[in-house]
Amino acid sequence: xxxxxxxxxxxxxxxxxxxxxxxxxxxxxxxxxxxxxxxxxxxxxxxxxxxxxxxxxxxxxxxxxxxxxxxxxxxxxxxxxxxxxxxxxxxxxxxxxxxxxxxxxxxxxxxxx
Amino acid sequence: xxxxxxxxxxxxxxxxxxxxxxxxxxxxxxxxxxxxxxxxxxxxxxxxxxxxxxxxxxxxxxxxxxxxxxxxxxxxxxxxxxxxxxxxxxxxxxxxxxxxxxxxxxxxxxxxxx
Lengths: 113, 114
Prior knowledge:
The complex is a heterodimer of chains A (113) and B (114).
Chain A: E1 4-7, E2 10-13, E3 19-25, E4 31-38, E5 42-51, E6 54-57, E7 64-66, E8 76-78, E9 87-94, E10 103-104, E11 108-112
Chain B: E1 5-6, E2 9-13, E3 18-23, E4 31-37, E5 43-50, E6 55-58, E7 61-66, E8 71-76, E9 85-91, E10 103-104, E11 108-113
Parallel strand pairs in B: 2-11
Antiparallel strand pairs in B: 1-3, 3-8, 4-5, 4-9, 6-7, 7-8, 9-10, 9-11
């Protein structure tokens, strides 16, 4: 198993550009989540999904969209990048019956100039 | 939202014990977790404890839970330089609306000196 994979590892965007952060898992996990990690702020939940076709907002959803058309993939879209979205983004997945045992991807470091 | 509180830094000497503390806010949380994040990597689950337990031991790791004070701690015995990382406490509050998504603390950076 590859586990949770994220692409790209690094990305630099200009303000106003859009892009999609990719996340995939091969463990047949029902739950998938996107977090951002900022210094001194810990992890903040952006969006999450409890199954294909079902998504919901987390703590900091503004400026981001998600979709879950398959169990495996959970892309995160930045609609119009802003410097405040400079962060490290982590995707995570888990079984529905083991909510706290999340498997994290290696992260995408995004810089918006 | 609920806040999970942790101190930001802890510095220890190699071979000593480390104790990382966490205070959570929802006394009805049934699951409490410790995650470890090594530099440049994602989080990895270290251990967890159910709310009906007071203590759990797993090799060098000991988790203590004080439900009355809503206090969780992680003790690492014989701390090694490889234990240097950020440690996150997490809870799954029942108030999460059935989503069962964990709430994470801000993380404690453990620095181990040789």
